[in-house]
Amino acid sequence: MKIILSRKGFDSSNGGCASPIFPDGRLISLPIPASDAPTRFSDVGFEGQSLGQIVGELSRGKVLPNSHTHLDPDLSNEALHRQDGWLPAFGQTGAAQSHLNSQGVEVGDLFLFFGWFRKVERNFSGRWSYVSGGADRHVIFGWLQVGEILRVGTKTDEFSDRYPWLARHPHLNGERSGSNTIYVASPTLNLPGWLGQFAGGGPFEYVYDARILSAPEQSSRSLWRIPAFFAPSSEGSALSYHGDPTRWKAADEGWVQLQSVAKGQEFVLDCRNSAYTMQIHSWLESVFQ
Description:
It is built from four helices and 16 strands. By secondary structure, it is of the alpha+beta class.
């Protein structure tokens, strides 16, 4: 199995602000704006609220509630009205998809989606705003174990007909390149000892320590504290794009600090021949707990 840490959601270039961590610890990743997508922020539901309202308030009107959004990864059954047969799905194209191809990502591999998050609160006018002085953090917000890989390319209409429950996915709309690919979740998560305990893809409802990549007490969200099996070593492969040993520093026993790269979407760790199988499974258990 490979683990792919996949950077998604609002960032400084797309959306311009962090996704929210609500006062009770709930979180939701804000999907980036996109004019060619069929879905608007106001179409997307989140626990009885419109995502449009949340986006409009946190962006201070820079992103409007009725703006179109690239809802990808599409992980929550409750986000939109769904057709029968719906499964979580994630699309990729261009250089990022070429990287996934070169890393041999296949059925059974596990995407863990992370993004930029910050705590929010209701301000004096009852609108959502960021907590003053709150830390910026990279947080894992969802997962998808690959159950099927659709090599869509430019044949968006053909795949919309074959997979009608997927027709609103942004990678089946607009102009797409030949590398356009959609990863569909397996019906259930299939990991040793976990068969049937979790869906094959979905959002994590709450934030807590095991899902935070950023090192505590650090000002930069790009400085991570992660398990040592991610680091380059003679016992296993390194996290892709992070082979430079100067990026890594020993931390507590079993942990390392990583200065993660500023750009890049898909970071792949090949666990198939790792000597750290027990540590990997233990960490995944803590993430899914």
